[in-house]
Amino acid sequence: MASSCSFRITRTAEDLALTLTEISQRLVKLEQRIELLELQSNQPKETQSDEEMVMLDGVDQLLQECKGLLNNSSNEVKNSSNEEHSEQLWVDENNRNEDIAA
Questions:
Q1: What is the three-class DSSP state of 50?
Q2: Distance between CA 58 and CA 9 in Å, rounded?
């Protein structure tokens, strides 16, 4: 009975040793990957290519044009609403004058 208990303890110890070894290896690999990622993140970024810069300039120009169109259309809407309001006031005043004359 003592030998079977000893065998189980030995077997468990061996399993634990294997598990510990595997975990240690994984830890080393993870540390290496982290170190590689840190090195990559610390390296200076490559400058943008001319093609990318032209594309970004084009996008910036389109954005500016869109903003201009939006500003113009919002100004036109404000102006047209002001004109409608002033026309309405003029029509109302004419109606009052006609009522007074009658």
A1: helix
A2: 72
Looking at per-residue pLDDT, the higher value among 14 and 86 belongs to: 14
Please state, in angstroms and rounded to a whole number, the distance separating the CA atoms of residues 8 and 19.
16
Rounded distance, CA 21 to CA 37, Å?
24
Q: What residue segments make up the domains of the chain, in order of their start?
A: 1-40, 59-102
- Residue 65: name the closest of 55, 57, 53 by CA: 57
Rounded to an integer, what distance in angstroms lies between the CA atom of residue 100 and that of residue 51?
73
Can you give the pTM of this predicted structure?
0.39
pLDDT at 31: 93
Helix (H, G, I), strand (E, B) or coil at 18: helix
